[in-house]
UniProtKB/TrEMBL annotation:
Keywords: Chaperone, Cytoplasm, Disulfide bond, Redox-active center, Zinc
GO CC terms, sorted: cytoplasm
SUPFAM superfamilies with a match to the protein in the record: Hsp33 domain, HSP33 redox switch-like
Subcellular location, principal: cytoplasm
PANTHER family with a match to the protein in the record: 33 KDA CHAPERONIN
Domain of life where this protein originates: Bacteria
Protein role: Redox regulated molecular chaperone. Protects both thermally unfolding and oxidatively damaged proteins from irreversible aggregation. Plays an important role in the bacterial defense system toward oxidative stress.
rRNA-binding recorded as keyword: no
PTM section of the record: Under oxidizing conditions two disulfide bonds are formed involving the reactive cysteines. Under reducing conditions zinc is bound to the reactive cysteines and the protein is inactive.
GO BP terms in the entry: protein refolding
Protein name: 33 kDa chaperonin
Family recorded in the similarity comment: Belongs to the HSP33 family.
Length: 296
């Protein structure tokens, strides 16, 4: 099944919810970055979360960045989503390996770390992006994101994220949900949401049974009548290009570029988000230097 995102609202108008199935895009990220299982799980959770945040943006060309710096061995975990929910991401130290937790699960919290921040950057094509940041609670990402919404945006939120890694290190299941209360929701609504989340169990267990994100939402919210607002395909999508890499080279300045030409005679640039490599031969670099000279 292709990765999908579903947005819904409860018929009573008190709860909005989003869910994603992201197995394919998480597997794509694993192959690009050659992540170990615990790194795959951490990056996969951040990708799923960021996809749901990105799809909530309205403006064309808008994007959201989700960055986690927890002080753990993985270093920075980063994802960027467009306003459709298509996402890309990276992890600073993809080869980290840790023992399993006592319950047999991947120790994402220790890998991410608990002494740091979760930061959300929304670029709405205005002068300055909106930046919100909160201290991490435990590094498991879902509870940290829920805390972000409560602290930074005063929106009561329940979040579940999960990545199930097979014995051959490939991704068996991945995805998550985001459930948020709307103005006017009372204690009875809160209790129904909490009850549904507790009884549903883990995201990976639910997605292993049925990878449809709509089914995931309905099983996590059994006491609500849901109206589906949108169902859309999502994918691992990078917007890198040769032109963007050229701009990166130009930003180094003519002296640095000339030094590169003198020392090695070429440049191979690899996108941090995907496996796209662009080769710039000596004549390409010399043309960039000449172009910069003409603009003076």
């Amino acid at each position: 099944m292709q990765d999908q995102l579903v947005r819904a609202i409860s018929k009573d108008g008190f709860v909005k919810a989003t869910a994603v199935s992201t197995r394919a895009l998480t597997e794509r990220a694993r192959q690009i970055h050659k992540t170990t299982p615990v790194a795959t799980a951490a990056l996969g959770r951040v990708l799923a979360a960021c996809s749901m945040l990105g799809n909530a943006l309205k403006g064309e060309g808008a994007s959201v960045t989700l960055q986690i710096k927890g002080g753990g061995p993985l270093g920075t975990v980063l994802a960027v989503s467009d306003n459709q929910g298509n996402v890309r991401g990276t992890v600073e130290q993809p080869a980290v390996e840790l023992p399993l937790r006592s319950d047999g699960k991947l120790d994402v919290g220790t890998a991410v770390g608990q002494d740091g921040t979760l930061t959300v950057i929304r670029d709405l094509n205005m002068k300055e992006p909106y930046v919100g940041s909160v201290a991490l609670l435990g590094g498991e990402i879902a509870e940290d994101l829920a805390a972000y919404f409560v602290e930074s945006e005063q929106i009561p939120t329940a979040c579940g994220l999960g990545v199930l890694v097979d014995r051959d290190q490939s991704v068996l299941a991945a995805g998550g949900y985001l459930i948020q209360l709307l103005p006017g929701a009372g204690e009875d609504i809160i209790s129904k949401v909490e009850g549904g989340v507790l009884s549903a169990g883990s995201v990976t267990s639910l997605l292993s049974q049925d990878s449809d994100p709509e089914s995931l939402l309905r099983r996590v919210m059994p006491d609500f009548e849901l109206e589906i607002l949108e169902t859309s395909p999502i994918a691992y999508r990078c917007y890198c290009s040769r032109e963007r890499m050229e701009r990166a080279l130009i930003s180094l300045g003519p002296a640095e570029l000339q030094s590169m030409i003198d020392e090695q005679g070429y440049a191979d640039l690899t996108c941090r988000f995907c496996d796209n490599v662009q080769h710039f031969a000596r004549e390409d670099l010399e043309a960039l230097v000449q172009g910069m000279g003409k603009k003076k």
